[in-house]
Design goal:
Elements: H1 6-23, H2 26-35, H3 38-41, H4 45-56, H5 61-81, H6 85-96, H7 99-105, H8 114-141, H9 143-148, H10 150-155, H11 163-189, H12 194-221, H13 225-248, H14 254-257, H15 260-265, H16 278-296, H17 320-328
Helix pairs in contact: 1-2, 4-11, 5-8, 5-11, 7-13, 8-11, 8-12, 8-13, 11-12, 12-13, 12-16
């Protein structure tokens, strides 16, 4: 018999560890999971990621196109609509007098230039859309597969426990990175400046990475896919509203630094071009993903830290005739 290669030996060991953990009861199963080396938990991630990108990668394309269109349209339309400095000054005065616009778009630092207008118009909305894409990608690859039964099918092969979570985070990160790169290249091709546009599109990517971490953590806490999506998107909406209120009501500056979305507006493309606020955002994303992996290694399959809410105490269908109609109304 030919000697066993290193890759075959690693695959065989991972399969044996998975089999032992699957058949071990209760606490023994958790103990077996802890005894596995860290690399074994990620076995099969590369193959699963490649397959997921082939089948689900098209779901990321519309989000990338929306953010790219949002950013690239400003250099094209702004010089045509506001072609004189007087019109641009009037626009700046109008927006500055309307705090409701600050609730959605954030502060307008420079509306007299094309890049300044693009930064005001695209920074918050572009980050919000990229974050939504990242949340849906992570939840779909984690709790979505557990709810549909795909996760059990994948677990029957040689695949580590953390492979699906790693695949979801990597898919979301790929989508966020592609969004930033494509939006930057197209925006510059349409007339945007390299420096400010690169920073603007980097905020898109960084926001997506942060909320990929939020979704990864929510997928371990929630009881099912719907609850994980609700927690993640609810967190995004809550922080977005707080950031808008902070600018509209002119609250103290610490309220912006307490909000991760506020870190993105502190980059101030065109005006200051601060890259350093991206660093704490990347650190936060890393911490959230690490905590998500720790929780996943300690929770039961298809379960979460939160229990699903109970159903209604009384049903809405009363009597056999009503039940018959409810079951067959589609045929009628």
């Amino acid at each position: 018999m030919a000697p066993e290669t290193g890759r075959a030996r690693q695959t065989s060991q991972a399969a044996q560890d998975t089999q032992d953990a699957r058949h071990a009861p209760g606490g023994d199963r958790k103990e077996a999971s802890r005894r596995r080396p860290p690399a074994a938990a990620l076995t099969g991630t590369r193959l699963l990621l490649r397959t997921s990108l082939r089948h689900d990668g098209r779901l990321l394309v519309p989000w990338i196109l929306i953010v790219t269109l949002l950013s690239a349209s400003s250099p094209l339309l702004y010089p045509l609509i506001f072609d004189t400095q007087q019109e641009r000054a009037t626009l700046a005065a109008t927006i500055g007098a309307n705090p409701a616009l600050g609730l959605i778009f954030g502060p307008a630092h420079d509306l007299l230039s094309t890049d300044g207008f693009n930064a005001w118009r695209s920074l918050t909305l572009g980050g919000f859309i990229t974050a939504m894409s990242a949340v849906l990608a992570v939840v779909r690859a984690t709790r979505g597969q557990e709810d549909s039964g795909q996760a059990e099918l994948l677990a029957s092969g040689v695949m580590g426990r953390g492979a699906r979570l790693a695949t979801g985070v990597l898919m979301a990160s790929t989508g966020a990175l592609a969004t930033g790169i494509v939006a930057a290249v197209v925006t510059v091709a349409c007339g945007g400046g390299w420096g400010s546009t690169a920073l603007l599109c980097a905020t898109f990517t960084t926001t997506g990475l942060m909320f990929a971490g939020v979704a990864a953590l929510a997928s371990q806490v929630a009881a099912d896919r719907r609850m994980a999506s609700t927690i993640s998107l609810g967190t995004l909406g809550f922080l977005f509203a707080l950031r808008g209120l902070a600018y509209s009501l002119e609250t103290p500056s610490w309220t912006l630094w307490a909000n991760p979305l506020g870190w993105m507006t502190q980059t101030e493309p065109v005006v200051s071009n601060n890259w350093w606020p991206l660093l704490p955002a990347l650190l936060l994303a890393t911490v959230l993903v690490l905590v998500a992996f720790l929780l996943q290694d300690r929770r039961d399959f298809a379960q979460g830290l939160l229990s699903p809410p109970p159903g209604p105490a009384d049903g809405q269908v009363h009597g056999p005739w009503a039940l018959t109609w409810r079951l067959n109304r589609g045929c009628c």
